[in-house]
Amino acid sequence: MIPEDTFRMIQQEIKELEAREQVTVLYACESGSRAWGFESSDSDFDVRFIYLRKTEWYLSIQDKRDVIELPIDDELDISGWDLPKALQLLRKSNPPLLEWMQSPIVYAEVPGFADRLRQIMDRYYSPISCMYHYLHMAENNHKKYLLKDEVWTKKYFYVLRPVLACMWIEQGLGVVPIEFDVLVQRLVTDEELHEEIAKLLRLKRSGAELDLAPRNPVLSGFLDNELKRLRADLQPPAESRDPKLLDKILVETLMSVNGSSLKLD
Questions:
Q1: 102-133: b or e for each residue (b if 16 or more CB lie within 10 Å)?
Q2: Fewer CB near the last or first residue (10 Å), C or N of the chain?
Q3: Nearest alpha-carbon partner for 36 in 114, 89, 96
Q4: What dihedral do alpha carbons 19, 30, 163, 175 form, nearest 10°?
Q5: Is residue 6 a contact partner of residue 30, using CB atoms and an 8 Å limit?
């Protein structure tokens, strides 16, 4: 998990960001390898958040920046989305946002905000759109890192996880869980493959250097076959869902956080 001093440091960064940007952070969580469950001791911290500005910010026809990104250093990567952007992405069944809502590590939250989004995730979840996202991620990482005789061993995780996510979607199991272990335990039934994944996890979590090494025939064979099979079954993405409920959440959050008197017709 997150060391206590690091956790407090990240919370302080969020408070300073709120004051500097004049925003309210509605929800802030860990994403990436630490949330997925295959971090090593030197993994960086990937903090993602959803924020709200003052009501006046939204009463304009001008295009305004809807992302806040802090300078990235070797340890900390912090960025977030404005609430309207986040809701638009929820409407499109954006997989990273769906993952944020499931993160086991939460740094900050306006009470009730994340729960409300979690309650409606299934309504906006699109299996085909999510399948496109994860398959595209798996294919890109597979092509970039795992096709030569010697491969970057740690990159197996960055193909295994999206491939397992595709299998989860394919089996109709609902929104893809963020934890890698949940995917493995539910989907990997082959004992040899299960052991190779467990071995790789033990090495990663121990802080071992997972640099260039010969291809693992068990892991590579599984990934090669699954990617070929999944690609053949791919379908067009689904259209996004009705935005009315998300509009309601935006207005009600503005009223709750900013004390706005705006009302829906």
A1: bbebebbbeeebbeebeeebeebbbbebbbbb
A2: C
A3: 96
A4: -80
A5: no
Asked if residues 168 and 186 have their Cβ atoms less than 8 Å apart, the reply is yes
Helix (H, G, I), strand (E, B) or coil at 118: helix
Residue pair 204/41 in contact (Cβ under 8 Å)? The answer is no
CA separation (Å) from 63 to 60, 66, 265? 8, 9, 24
CB 93 within 8 A of CB 143: no
Gap between the Cα atoms of 186 and 263, Å rounded? 45
10-residue mean pLDDT profile of the chain (265 residues): values are: 91 97 97 91 91 93 93 90 97 96 97 96 93 95 94 93 97 96 97 96 78 92 95 68 89 86 52
Which among 97, 92, 2, 89 is positioned nearest to 49, based on CA atoms? 97
| Domain range summary for the chain, segments of one domain joined by + | 4-125+242-258, 127-232
Write the pLDDT tens digit of every residue in 194-250. 999 999 999 888 876 677 889 999 999 999 999 999 987 666 666 667 889 999 999
Sequence-ordered alpha helix ranges (H) in the chain: 4-21, 33-36, 83-91, 95-100, 113-124, 127-145, 157-170, 180-187, 191-205, 217-232, 244-258
Residues in Cβ contact with 17 at an 8 Å cutoff, skipping those fewer than 6 apart: 23, 25, 68, 70, 78
Give the predicted TM-score (pTM) of the model. 0.90
Q: Which CATH class is domain 4-125+242-258?
A: alpha beta
